[in-house]
Specification:
Oligomer: single chain
Distance between the termini: 17 Å
Helix content: 40-55%
Largest sheet: 5 strands, parallel
Order of helices and strands: HHEHEHHHEHHEEEEHEHHEH
Shape: globular
Structural class: alpha/beta
Number of helices: 12
Radius of gyration: 19 Å
């Protein structure tokens, strides 16, 4: 199987999975965030590790606006247009041109909530103080991100790795704050993606916080689910997650586990364990972005072990 077949085969409900695709994602040094340097570093990493998905890292973080001092200020933030994303879109365009014939190419998309926090870290207190006023910021940010989404679709991406946050245990005492104020803006973007792309990953990000449960996310679009296995009330398995979301699971390894600092044999053993415990359809990955200092050889070992795993 080639890389595209290995990955897109996850979506064929009528076919038995014949091999395990694998992918791990890292942030590159800032000198590789723009232009041809970013394109070449993505390709170097993709080819060296032999992974099956080429995910374009998103490095176009919204500018910090310290002048936002109260909830009413959110209606004044700028709506960034296509020109704001030009450097990011250049990287997407070049990687689609070079790699789509051989591998699934995904663009990374941060959620409106995540971009709001990048804009000003007081977004959550402002949302709690005056939801209607703070939501104006999410509306503007969503409009801007929709420009990025539509331009990536025009460039031919196979889909998006849509990362969402905001529903963790430490954000609010009442999850209804997330459901009523943040979730709708996630869904606006994700439904546009669902209408236009064949392979999207829903990533419920626990990089900042873990979750009480995943109930608020069960109706989110996404062909494959990626999320952490630790919840506030206890752990889950990949089989649990796949059954809960009713879609293939992407994960199995800890970003700070054996792939970061284990021996070659420990990495192979960890991969075999994850594959042995896999749900019906499965892609090997980490629970989130792997620390940038990871040895690429470790990731190459993990990918190779996944490809060599014999599905009985």
């Amino acid at each position: 199987m080639n890389k595209r077949e290995r990955v897109l085969g996850l979506l064929d409900k009528g076919a038995t999975q014949k091999s395990i695709p694998a992918a791990f994602f890292i942030h590159f040094d800032p000198k590789f965030h723009r232009g041809d340097a970013a394109v070449q570093k993505h390709l170097e990493y993709f080819e060296y590790t032999d992974m099956d998905v080429l995910k374009v890292q998103y490095e176009n973080v919204f500018p910090t606006l310290p002048e936002i001092t109260n909830p009413q200020d959110w209606e004044k933030i700028p709506c960034y247009g296509k020109e704001f994303y030009e450097e990011q879109l250049y990287v997407v365009e070049q990687l689609v041109k070079s790699s789509k014939k051989n591998a699934v190419v995904m663009a990374t998309l941060y959620s409106p909530f995540m971009c709001a926090v990048h804009t000003n870290k007081r977004f959550t207190p402002h949302l709690l103080e005056n939801p209607e006023a703070a939501r104006k910021g999410l509306e503007i940010i969503s409009e801007s991100l929709m420009t990025f989404v539509k331009e990536c679709i025009k460039l031919g991406v196979d889909g998006f790795y849509h990362s969402t946050e905001g529903g963790g245990r430490n954000n609010y005492d009442d999850i209804s704050v997330f459901i009523e104020n943040i979730k709708p803006y996630d869904l606006v973007l994700m439904k546009e993606i669902e209408r236009n792309c064949e392979f999207n990953v829903l990533h419920v990000c626990d990089y900042q916080d873990i979750y009480v449960d995943y109930e608020p996310y069960l109706d989110y679009p996404g062909h494959v689910i990626s999320c952490g296995l630790e919840l506030d009330k206890g752990g889950m398995s990949g089989k649990d997650v796949s059954a809960l979301f009713n879609r293939p699971f992407m994960g199995g390894l800890l970003r700070k586990g054996a792939i970061l600092n284990g021996t070659e044999q420990e990495i192979i053993d960890d991969v075999r364990r994850a594959c042995d415990e896999r749900p019906g359809k499965f892609m090997l990955a980490a629970d989130c972005t792997v620390p940038a200092e990871v040895n690429w050889d470790n990731l190459k070992t993990a990918v190779s072990a996944a490809h060599e795993y014999q599905i009985s």
